[in-house]
Amino acid sequence: MSQLASRQCEACNAETPALDQETVTNHLAEISPDWVLIDSRIVREFKFKNFRDAFGMATKTALLAEQQGHHPDFELGWGFLKLTLTTHAVKGLTDNDFIMASKIDEL
């Protein structure tokens, strides 16, 4: 288990600061290279051989998100799942996004 994956997401609000670029770069090195930084979001696309497996991963991710109280945006279709993480309350990335990404990597 990675250091990020061992942590729990914490509630944040508009007063929570977004991460600076150095911290974002450091956290990116701790998660799968399949996560891509796009503006103030991290995005990962999964490919599957059918809809059932894509839906299964989406379901596992949704249950994890509920447990952590931090929810990615989902795009789901036949053979694919695209997850986007950002912290809407701060209009940027927080530790929660990287904690969730790390936990998703372990699913």
Task: Characterize the structure shown.
The structure is a single chain. With 107 residues, this protein is an alpha+beta fold. The chain has a domain of 73 residues: Gyrase A, domain 2 (2-Layer Sandwich), CATH 3.30.1360.20. The chain has 3 helices and 4 strands, in the order αββαββα. A 4-stranded antiparallel β-sheet has the order 1-2-4-3, with helices on one face. Strand 3 and strand 4 form a beta hairpin. It starts with 20 loop residues before the first helix and ends with a helix. The relative contact order is 0.28.
Spell out the key features of this protein.
4 strands, Gyrase A, domain 2, 3 helices, 35% helix, 107 residues, alpha+beta, four-stranded antiparallel sheet
